Amino acid sequence: MAGLVLNNVAKLYPNGGVGVKDLSLEIKDGEFAVLVGPAGSGKSTLLRMIGGLEDISLGDIYIGGERVNDLEPRERKVAMIFRNYMLYPQMTVYENLAFGLKLAGCGKNELHERVMETAKLLELEELLETPSEQVTGIDRYKVVVGRALARRPEVLLMDDPMISLDGQLRCEMREGLAELHHRLGVTVVYVTEDASEAMLLGTKLAVIRDGLLEQTGTPEEICGRPQNRFVAEYFSRPAMNVTTAKVEEEDGRAILWVEGCRGVFSEENSRRLLKGEYAGKEILIGIRPKDIHAEPVCGEKWSDNRVEAVAETCEEYGGETYMTFRAGDETFRALAPEETKIQPGDPVVLAVDPEKVYIFDKDTQKAI
Questions:
Q1: Predicted pLDDT of residue 256
Q2: Which of 122, 233, 238, 291 is most buried per CB count within 10 Å?
Q3: Fold of 241-361
Q4: How far is the CA of 123 from the CAs of 92, 95, 143, in angstroms?
């Protein structure tokens, strides 16, 4: 297996369009890297550039330390699985696994050895003589992955291969793919628009928007320390609450005002705001719905960060109940207490843990 390095890579089109903008990224040997972002952000274009299916306009790509800009796809030691993957229904599982090797001119003995080795790794040995049209679920996906792995690629490229699957099968595939990566240790570059899928699968995430690399890091780093408002909102389900707050200094500490209500920042955020001379200015604050609590859950905690509100709507999301509350002109979505009896129109008190408040510059949208 091998690592992957992209140095100032760009994709420029004759009409003046830009698909990828001066992007640099390092993926270490054995990492499961996920390129994640909205549709049209350049993720698949970048993946195709790595695989040799798109020309590189500027910059360099290295696989295993070798510059591959001028190499044909078959010379790059990569295998690619597309979103519309399929098996050849007239072939057995064995024949599907062997198909790419035959095209590459692999000798009969070596071909058999690779197929059997791949089947053993993926626990497909008992299905080798089964017609592929009879293979379903996770086993079908294993055959697709196995067909790529049989070529012994140094990097496995996957272009949103689960996009067309239903919820249950997609969940099974995610678990199966994560387990396979853990067992095989192959370097993977995976494309998806799904932030939750990226968090579940990736050991390293690269967040891309409009061809630009917004942030890289582990799932914990991306979710816990977003570098800008876009990343924070993209990795918040349900949507993050974002509102404008006025910053003031009081007894050497930053405080905030939202809709006439006074609140406090964490010590770390207070230090950053005062150091950045934000006192007297407006900023953006972001709070995930799960971090806003309605009484009685909040109890006596966070007494400095409370606001009176009125309940409006209720919805289920991911097995939890969230409610929408209105405070003045602002609307907030918050996690409802278990077995809540709050009804639309009821007055409530909302409380926020100051450690869970994200702060952004109002003009640049960057994290402070």
A1: 93
A2: 122
A3: OB fold (Dihydrolipoamide Acetyltransferase, E2P) (2.40.50)
A4: 15, 16, 10
